[in-house]
Write a structure and sequence with these properties.
This protein has about 270 residues and is an alpha/beta fold. It has one domain (about 5-265). It contains 9 helices and 9 strands. Helix 1 (about 5-25) packs across helix 3 and helix 4 crosses helix 5 (about 130-140). The longest helix is centred in the N-terminal third of the chain and has 22 residues, at about 5-25. It is globular.
Amino acid sequence: MHNSTQANTTRVWRRLRIVTEDCAQRLRPERYHLHVSENSKTGSSINVPIATTCQNKTAACTQYCYGLLGPISLQASIQTHVENQAVLNRLATASYKAVKEEADYSAAVLTVRGHNFLRWNGVGDLSLGSVRLLRALSKQHPAIQHWVSTRSAQLAAKLPHKDNIHVMFSIDQSTKPKDLTAFRAYIHASNGQAFLAYAQLAEDDVPPTDVHVVFAQHKSAFRAPWPPLPQTCLATVSLKYPSAVAHDNSCISCRRCFDKTLREQISPTP
């Protein structure tokens, strides 16, 4: 990593830690339930603070993590992420009745919106509280599909292998070999419910052959100009290619990240 890039990365993470620590001092007592966010691309999601949950970040993730840029990185958003984590921290040791109550609340939010899937960690990563809630939600509301983005094989191992839990291990060119080995071991035991997703940063940045979803680099209006691979998310493909799709409702329309059958229809690059 060049010195200038490394210095910028250090500044970004320092600012994120400072803002997160400040938000932790401003918790609103009325925020009892999780805030389930919603956007036009990915639908409903539960977001938590990057600074305290992304313990397994890679050297390259600062180049493409949208949680470090735009509205989702502003203090108002981080405040919501911190308050979500406070709820999850409470659930980590709460009674099952309390966990079930939160599961019912989140399911009700999705029902009102007409969504039958939930994205976990649009930003941030798993914790013991989110694992407990995920287990309860998947049991009490089996019709909801859970799209779980993570880099923690250790916490993912606490989740059951169920048809409605889809664990997406996020990797890139700088993912450590030991982490990739742990992810693959989990995937092997998951009967197709877990998979690798690769952040592609350049045309010659070739993903491993067992990757099922590729996210070409994209930020705001920018989309990678290189041609898509068979497993590339079409919402990250340059609009100059006929296969590209608009961001709005793209995840709801595609569903590959939370539908095992659809993932199996697209073979990784040989």
